[in-house]
Design brief:
CATH architecture of the largest domain: 3-Layer(aba) Sandwich
Keywords: Aminotransferase, Pyridoxal phosphate, Transferase
Order of helices and strands: EHHHEHEHEHEHEEEHHHEHEEEH
Oligomer: single chain
Pfam families: Aminotran_5
GO molecular function: transaminase activity
Strand content: 5-15%
Shape: globular
Largest sheet: 7 strands, mixed
Bound molecules: pyridoxal-5'-phosphate
CATH class of the largest domain: Alpha Beta
Strand order of the largest sheet: 2-8-7-6-5-3-4
Protein name: Aminotransferase class V
Distance between the termini: 25 Å
Amino acid sequence: MTDLRPRPDLWSLDPDVLHLNHGSFGAVPRRTQELLATLRAETEANPMRWFRSVAERLAVSRLELARFLRTDPAGFALVPNASAGVTAALATIPIRPGSRIVLTNHTYGAVLFAAERFARAFQAEVVVVDVPLEADDDAVVAAIGAELDERTAALVVDQISSATAMVFPIRRLVEVCDGIPVIVDGAHAPALLDAPAQDGADFWTGNFHKWPAAPRATAGLVVAEKWRSTTLPLIVSWSENDERLPERFDMVGTADYAPWIAAPESLRVLDELDWPVRRAQLSTLIDEAAQVVAKALGTDLPDVVHPAATMRLVELPFADDRSPSAGEAFKARVSRELKAEITLTAFDQRVFVRLSAHAYNSARDYELLAERLPTLL
Ligand SMILES: Cc1ncc(COP(=O)(O)O)c(C=O)c1O
């Protein structure tokens, strides 16, 4: 299997554990952790001085994060996570009684809950479009396009889905929406796609605490010009009446702003890893890894047409119990008995291990998983 000089030394991950699920909660490099600790020490040395300095530091950080996404900084706001980004977008668009919020069967569960909350509040309806796992771009656009009409309040669509690690054709979906507001859930997109917020959507949100390995609770919300004056942070605070979108989202009450200020340090780590080259190598690695694990389990790899650069699904030959609690119990056993951290996803009555690869992973990690996992089945 491909090996690519893994760099676990840049992280503080427990070397006795196989870390195969970067996709869920990321992992923060040592350097960023150290900066975070320094910033927190500064806070505790003089909280008053720290909070006086926050606005200026956030402005610097925002510019670096927006540059990384290759997006206009005037439309880029900081939010704690993609869930907050989607919620803020749903709170902005007009939702009329009888209208429909369209999403897909790949939509992240919490995002579905958000759409349901807004639909309930405005007597609207949530429509879930079935998009097969093996759909190509034409099939994705046709399936979603068929559900759009004058009743559609918004399309909420993943850029890279969580359960299926599949890349959706956002630019084409924006075109087919033809003026219907599009909210893109790009939770996994930063660092996996080069310019994820440039497809013309009305709202895009994505996490820096996943693939860019920033401290947790660091995410971005990119808002198209027409919505910038009406998009509000979920917490009402002193910047409520600021006319500028990014500044309006900066100070949302007393909070821990250190992660947002430290986040660009992780982008520098990616830079030093020569990230675009590394990401291509990780794609090869995770392709091979998925085959090795599938062979060991005696299952097939689903034919995802555009898989995420660094995530792959391997089907589990699971028994009858496909409930979330059985999945949680299985992951806990894998952690305890195999010393491996994996995640499971479910789609269309099938259960998958969703494997991740980041710069700290090596081919050996997946070979060990392939040796150990069949012992639990
Ligand atoms: C597609 C997708 N959307 C939204 C989220 C929610 O992200 P967060 O928990 O950072 O809000 C996730 C998290 O994994 C995700 O994968």
